[in-house]
Design goal:
This protein is of the alpha+beta class. 55% of the residues lie in helices and 10% in strands. The chain is built from 10 helices and 4 strands. The chain has helices at residues 9-34, 44-55, 59-77, 80-100, 120-138, 146-156, 162-180, 186-208, 222-233, 263-271; strands at 212-219, 238-243, 250-258, 277-283. It has a 4-stranded antiparallel beta sheet with strand order 2-3-1-4, with helices on one face. β2 (238-243) and β3 (250-258) form a beta hairpin. The longest helix has 26 residues, at 9-34.
Amino acid sequence: MIKQESNFPTKKCLTYLVIVGLAMLSAVNYHLFVFPNKFAPSGLNGLCTMVQYVLGINVGYLNLLINIPLAFIVFRKVSKVIAIRSTVYVIGFSLSLIVLDYIDISAFAYSTPNGTSTILGPLVAGIINGASYSLLIKACASTGGTDFVATLVRKKHAEMNFMWIVFSLNTFVAIISYFVYGYHLEPVLLCILYSFMSSIVSDKVIKSGRSAIRFEIITDYAQPLSQEIITKLHHSATLVPGKGMYSGHETNILVCIINKTQIPVLSGIIAHYPRTFAVMSSVTEVMGNFKHMNPDGTESNIFLDTGDGSAV
């Protein structure tokens, strides 16, 4: 079932404020860690960064020039929600870059004139970008640029892998940076490091809210044990009839999906029942239309409005 736009204006406004805040953070990230270390980050912004390095044209202007037409095409062909929200990010990011050109924050910038610890700049920049990108995805938005291009390509060629499209574009940026930054290999390596850290962090953050632990509990006390799970963990369980093949003893299997932080509580519950044991395994993602519950059993409120989710 496709999620529809939220009917709660407050949540929508908060979502757009978060998008603008992330755009401003990304602009500061560029001024503090990207530009001073003379390397091109991944995506179309990497190309813009190299144009700024060679010709002195602010990345903000170039970012707007490239992304506005792409956003219009995505709006017409893919998703209105994603196009609008991504455009809000692009405008916020571009304007912040332009304004920061008139504000001296060089005292806080990280660079190493003697060449030592150069990797720390792109390392930190990649971490910040990855965290920001994961929040944008949860808000049904993107940073534009490469994401717009990959979305349009995949719309026409659904069989193509989204990540391979992005990887190919980023590889092209890394190769070009070799020629732009004085035929040195270091900017290429810094671009790769930035892209790697950004991907790792965004993947971890995105999956952190959807990963879980699966318990298969073999027990003769299915009813009282399941009641404790419901009461103390606010999760349910699925009962599956079972039979021990060695003894022929009829038993029950309770299948339960819980959060990682709830493992000690469930382990304590299981320990109270004789002849009861469990098999535990990691679950990378849980999909479905579920209620999100707080530890006290009340339904939690989702922080961001997720739009229609048609291209996420």
